[in-house]
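Give me structure tokens for this 182-residue protein.
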Amino acid sequence: INTNNPIVYYTDSTSTDYYINSGKSGTQGIEAEYTLKQKWGHIAINYAYYSAANKEKIPDYEVEDDGAALMAFANHRVNLNSYFNIAKKLTISPTLSVYGPRYGYTSVDSTGTSVVEQLAPTALLNIYLRYETPLKGLSVGFGAYDILNQQFKFIQPYDGYHAPLPGPGREFVFRLQYILNY
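Here you go.
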């Protein structure tokens, strides 16, 4: 993928926002997916890899120590989506998203310079249990999200003079759903 004149967002030390069309940018990579659907359920797993090596980069988004990486984005990502029929009206749906290491601005030092660090890989594991009640259209579900309490961080790909934004932590959900058929 090559992009000419991408819109680049940046701020200065006074927190003034700017947008400019700047230069060229590109990545190369590969994605693969395997899906299996059977009467017992469904499994889909995919893998994505990208590299910015040997491609033009916007200086604001470059990672100084890693020519293949871009700020805030993992070079490797794996996703697993699935559901299994436990009984006639009972399903369980485990999902997993694994992000490889990411680089991001994590703080500002005593001189006012933003600090770039490599953040550890993150694995977001979720599970959802759903039961279709005998009452047509009514289902009950319970889920747990971010079971491993990874507390995913949203990293800006630009120097915004602040730490990564916190994502949701571990969550438990109860859902009562009724679908009206008109």
